[in-house]
Amino acid sequence: MAKVLNSKSSKQSRRATKKNRKKRPAQSADMLVNVLMLALSVLVLTFIWSFWNRHTNNRNVAEEMRYYAEIPEEATPETLIAKQKYTKVSVEILNGCGIGGVAALYKDIVHAKTFDVLNTENAAHFHYENTLIIARTDNIDAAFKLAEELGISREHVSLETDASLSVDITMIIGHDYKSVPAYKEKKS
Asked: Residue 8's CB: how many other CB atoms inside 10 A?
């Protein structure tokens, strides 16, 4: 009888080990999936942290680096004022003399003086004798600076605010465009 009991218990233990063998691969697969999920979670959190860190903390550092990169090695107050940028001042250039290509030429000249030229087109008519600079916002100082950079007399600068325009300054090129000092400098 002992043999019968032993054989029954050995059959049961064999069955139990067969069941355990069947469960082991499933448990291993579950564990592998859990490890992979943990690794992917860590990777995603690292990307989120990197993105957040780059776009919050480093923005100020990059702006400071750009600012210091523009300062010459021997910076004096005179050189800093002379190199002042007006890229935030938007200018539209209108051809008021009727000569083709003049607005495009002045676009290059004004852009070289560090102003942002948004567009060039023809004026309402071609009967402007003098080149005019019109401040479209209250920032008339920028209009005077543009006139100074181009060598245009301050009496040809005016203030006519117009909120419907998307520019700060309107420049109308007149028939005197060849006598403007910046034009002469460009042509020489």
From this structure: 10
Query: End-to-end distance of the chain based on CA atoms, in angstroms?
Result: 121
Annotated domain spans of the chain: 1-70, 82-187
Residue 126 three-state SS:
coil
Dump pLDDT digits (tens) for 37-63. 999 999 999 888 887 776 665 555 555
Fold of 82-187: Alpha-Beta Plaits (3.30.70)
Could you give the CA distance from residue 11 to residue 18 in angstroms, rounded to a whole number?
Answer: 10
Nearest to 135 by CA among 89, 98, 179: 89
- Are the CB atoms for 106 and 173 separated by under 8 Å? yes
Would the pTM count as exceeding 0.85? no
Task: Map tokens 């030429």 to a residue.
Answer: 105
Angle at 30 between CA 25 and CA 33, to 5 degrees: 125
101 phi/psi in degrees, rounded to 5: 85, -5
By DSSP bridging, strand 132-135 and strand 169-173 are antiparallel
Share of the chain above pLDDT 90, in %: 27
pLDDT in tens, 86-95: 657 889 999 9
